[in-house]
């Protein structure tokens, strides 16, 4: 028995590296000199973000693809950065020295690599139901021969985008008997379940296109599962097929809706952090306070004190800290971890 137990233990030791979860963060040491300490820090941050991005990407794809990723600009790479933690920081003269822990946005990186055929990944099957209204005084169509919207979707075949694979609903598998244009637009749970089972996917979107009087095309996208909607208008300037432009834009919108849906399905926590914001002037802080307060995960900001170019406040949030850092980054803020608080600038 001891021999068997030892064999089992050694097997686990061999297997562990293969099943270990990919880490989407990297610890980067920087030691950069420039004309000033401020310039050195900016240069170090860009270098570290690039190094961390390529390091993490290298865990998912081969060296040839990493070489291609090096062609991305600093402005493009920054979109993949979820957060930057700063430790052991030393600034003086014209140098900046620090240890930076950089978190990469896993979902965004996987989607980008999949979209550019740099990794093999499981694809999410989506079903698109193209409903079309050709004018103000016409009825919505689905299976009718005059549904030019559905014809254009069908002509594209299977559309691959990132980790998604979209296909247009067919009249087979009992679909034509189960739904028409009206029941697609106002689908109840029973009909949705039947459609989901017959088409082997629970990710079903209705793409409702309406031709306006001026020839523009208004498209409303409906996630049938959670009833969330988004819409846009494609202007008909006569330069190209308005349906092709609308389909291309629909794919982008559906991708964003899927991302938001994944976020909303995650278990949400809540918390409070102490923050120091370094501002240039009072107007700068008021603008940033407004921007922070508008973030959906920020519940409250309680200002403790300000002066000398710094404001101290507590911030109560819902969700995860990573989501908060990502949202802050999108409004132009970076953060650093201190002993028992965070510095944002």
Describe this protein with a few key phrases.
3 domains; 14 strands; Alpha-Beta Plaits; alpha+beta; five-stranded mixed β-sheet; elongated; Rossmann fold; disordered N terminus; 345 residues; six-stranded mixed β-sheet; 12 helices
Textual characterization of the structure:
With 345 residues, the protein is of the alpha+beta class. The chain folds into three domains: 2-115; 124-265, 3-Layer(aba) Sandwich (Rossmann fold); 270-344, Alpha-Beta Plaits, CATH 3.30.70. Helices cover 39% and strands 30% of the residues. The protein has helices at 2-19, 37-57, 63-69, 74-77, 106-115, 148-155, 175-178, 181-185, 189-199, 242-265, 282-293, 321-330, and strands spanning 25-33, 81-92, 95-104, 124-133, 159-161, 164-168, 204-211, 217-223, 229-234, 270-278, 298-307, 310-318, 335-337, 342-344. The longest helix is centred in the C-terminal third of the chain and has 24 residues, at 242-265.
Q: Would you kindly provide a brief summary of this structure?
A:
The protein is α+β, with helices and mostly antiparallel strands and 345 residues long.
